[in-house]
Write a structure and sequence with these properties.
The protein is of the alpha/beta class and about 475 residues long. It contains 13 helices and 20 strands. The longest helix has 24 residues, at about 365-390.
Length: about 475
């Protein structure tokens, strides 16, 4: 008789929790790939794993507290033979202090050497005493060159986030990212393009390029207009990815070449996410952000002239230290003038160790709340008008899932997104009926709400999904 196969050891299994933004999600996927390369299996329940990992977020207070709470919960339920590791931004930022905050942590690994996760686990298994081990290198200059052959992307349905760089060299006074991630480090063009080709082979329909600052891509590689250069390379190598979306552009670095590249290639969606943070020169100066307001007006005007139907998304902070009534009114005027398609807003929350934390004239919480409400009320009216302008026209939409109507629970709806809608942060197109998930289909827009559009399947022509073609055959032009 042949011997029975040995059961898998618990040491071969890991449980991973990913918190925070899409950039963190990509890092979590990469961590999982490194562990799988080393013959570890991912499981969906912590009790089934020997290694428990939380990829933390350390950007704002609520995110930090969520990370701490998840770590404490896992440590509290830890049984003999299990280890709990804190990874990510909170780990990089606080290191040993995090172990004091969460007693019982076994290991801490930061953002700059996530690829060493299995090495840390090996050291933890071999340690003679139960004290925690740390892996927090101060430099990240090997990122992009020593990524252990993993795919630096997170595939979510038919969409994929592809990280093109890490770190940031911008001096924003309110942000701790450079302290956490280090300076900007671009990944090699060839590596990114090869991964885009792999994602194309997986059937990905939407590629979202992400970094702390996508428009800074290639600066450290000596590339001029690096993002435009990268986009051209991706479009050439992966022509069957219909949608390519640019996220996290930095004001002042949206160049003429980038605009021309976006206008030239139909695969590159007419969508730009450009967090501006404020609309008044003096506030921006205190933020250590680009304060040339005239540049924004001129650039948005050029973009809209060169790229028909361009959707511009931005983000603002209200209640920044020293923000006067006049400065806030300047922000409202700025929003009225520019008529952004999408606006996200945050109430200022100081970050320990950042220059803004020590600024005088901190704004009272009730004032922040009132200003946040006023900004969002203004934008809601703009967003509704923008959405209503699409009624009667046809849009290609990427189907993400199904739901039911609030008015009729027996009526099935398809949840979809158009070129105007980035995943998770923008609205939906709600379509009558059950459309195939993961496909791009033409939809006639029949209604609009503040954040979402409503539509029906375009029946005047067959569904045609053609690489590099923004509009379906026989559809109305988006004008």
């Amino acid at each position: 008789m042949s011997p029975k196969p040995r059961p898998k050891s618990r040491k071969d299994k890991f449980y991973l929790v990913s918190l925070g933004c899409s950039k963190n999600t990509v890092d979590s996927e990469s961590i999982a790939q490194v562990l799988q390369q080393n013959h570890m299996l991912s499981v969906s329940a912590p009790q089934d794993a020997e290694v428990l990992i939380v990829n933390t977020c350390g950007f704002i207070d609520n995110a930090k507290q969520e990370s701490i709470n998840v770590l404490r919960e896992l440590v509290a339920g830890k049984r003999y033979g299990q280890m709990v590791i804190a990874a990510g931004c909170l780990s990089q930022r606080y290191g040993a202090a995090l172990v004091q905050e969460v007693a019982g942590l076994d290991g801490v690994i930061g953002t700059r050497r996530w690829m060493d996760i299995f090495d840390l686990i090996t050291r933890l298994r071999q340690r003679p005493h139960p004290e925690p081990l740390y892996h927090l290198p101060s430099e990240a200059n090997v990122v992009g060159l020593d990524e252990r052959g993993v795919l630096r992307a997170s595939v979510q349905g038919a969409s994929a986030y592809l990280k093109i760089a890490d770190g940031c060299r911008r001096p924003c006074a309110f942000c701790a990212i450079p302290k956490i991630k280090g300076t900007a480090v671009s990944r090699p063009v060839a590596s990114i393009v090869a991964e885009a080709v792999k994602l194309q082979a997986l059937g990905v329909k939407e590629l979202l390029l992400i970094a702390q600052d996508t428009t800074d891509y290639g600066y450290d590689l000596g590339l001029k207009d690096g993002l435009a250069h990268l986009l051209e390379a991706i479009v050439t190598a992966a022509p069957n990815i219909p949608w390519i979306r640019i996220m996290y552009a930095y004001p002042g670095y949206v160049t003429e070449k980038l605009m021309a590249t976006m206008a030239q290639y139909p695969q590159i969606l007419p969508y730009l996410d450009m967090p501006l943070q404020h609309g008044h020169r003096e506030t921006l100066k205190r933020m250590k952000r680009p304060a040339n307001i005239e540049w924004v007006y001129e650039t948005v005007g050029k973009l809209r002239a060169m790229i028909p139907n361009l959707a511009v998304r931005t983000t603002f902070i209200v209640g920044y230290p020293g923000e006067t009534d006049e400065e806030f009114e300047g922000l409202l005027t700025f929003v009225k003038d520019l008529q952004f398609d999408r606006v996200g807003a945050f109430k200022y929350s100081y970050e320990i160790g950042t220059p803004s934390a020590t600024l005088p004239n901190q704004v009272a919480d009730e004032v922040k709340e009132a200003r946040y409400d006023a900004l969002m009320r203004l934008q809601q009216g703009i967003s509704l008008a923008k959405n209503q302008a699409w009624v009667g026209k046809t849009l290609d939409v990427l189907v993400e899932g199904h739901g039911v109507s609030e008015d009729d629970s027996s009526a099935t709806l398809s949840l979809a997104r158009s070129f105007r809608d980035a995943p998770e942060i923008d609205g939906y197109v709600l379509v009558e009926g059950e459309l195939p998930v993961g496909e791009i289909v033409p939809v006639r827009i029949t209604g609009a709400t503040t954040y979402d559009l409503i539509g029906t399947v375009e029946t005047s022509a067959p569904i045609v999904i053609e690489a590099g073609k923004r509009y379906g055959e026989g559809m109305l032009p988006l004008s």
